[in-house]
Amino acid sequence: MSTENGMNDLFNMDDIPDGTEPERRVLIVGMNYIGDTLFTTPLIRAMHKSHRRTAVDVLNGPRGTAMLENNPYIRTVISKPPAGDRAAFDALIARIVQERYDIAIAASTSFESARIPYLAKIPVRAGLRTELRSFMFTHSAPRDMRTNIILQMLDILKPLGIAHDDSRMDLFISDDEHKEALAVLAKKRIAKEHTLIVHPGATRAQKRWPVEYFVKLIRQFNDDQGFPVILIGGKEDEARNAIIAADCGRAITLDLTGQLSLRTLAAVIRTAWAFVGNDSAPLHMASALNVHTVGLFGQTDPVTYGTLHDGGYNLSMRRACHPIRRFACARITRGCGDNVCMRLVTVDMVMEKLRDIFRWA
Predict the structure, then answer these.
(1) What pTM did the predictor assign?
(2) What is the spatial order of strands in the sheet that 292-297 belongs to?
(3) For residue 250, what are the domain limits?
(4) Are residues 217 and 156 in the same domain?
């Protein structure tokens, strides 16, 4: 199956009458986190569309699985077992063997994502070529660190001879979820088409725009544009958002911090005209939902993690640090202590993008 002829047999069905071709089973070993899971959705869509009859299953970390609900390109989502649970891992391998997959795609660059299909002896195994794991693939592609992570994943398809339609992410909201979001907004009589959603949170302090910048932005937006502002965040953002809400007063129309499930939050984001936030899950949710976005980047590189959709801006003022310091920032310290790269992104820069976005609101 790993030979060129095997690949041709696997993908070339031009001479097979409709309805008689065998089902092709594909396992995509996905990611763990919310934003990373969204990054895999163009790859999932491309694999689904690569045959007339394809069953795509996704092995994903439980934190990100909510982003795959209602996705018509997926047959089944399998949760990764907890790290260190040998019995659960062995049961997972047994289940994968039983499914008799034809192809496995390792979307992640982790060693484990290559090891799982290798141990399950899936005939065709593809992924990005990285140290120590390439021997486990039958087909691999070089990793181009100068491109967006979505495009890196789509490069995996090249040695398989599979084309893709585009790099847009997928996040499917049900009718019930949409109605629930409208009910949340109706409590404040918010017109859904003209809102700005602001998300000040991020997993690490080095990825967060300063609180005082958000306060200044919201006040200035309220004076300049006058459209409703919705503040969002999880339980972990409550203390930070409380400061912003107190300092902004009536400039914030609705504070939803810590009040919504992940799926309801996604549905609320879809109703917005624009979104401003740090490099974090809600930013990528907004991008997947084709909402206008202004992403704020410091320690993380927008070339790799920035939005690709037409309605998005990626703002970054990363310092030209020495290569050793840049490496330490990205791989060791996970950002500078003074958070200077985020502070270099000014409120005026963000307001300029918002004025452009709301010109058509």
Answers:
(1) 0.90
(2) 254-255, 229-231, 196-199, 274-278, 292-297, 312-316
(3) 176-358
(4) no
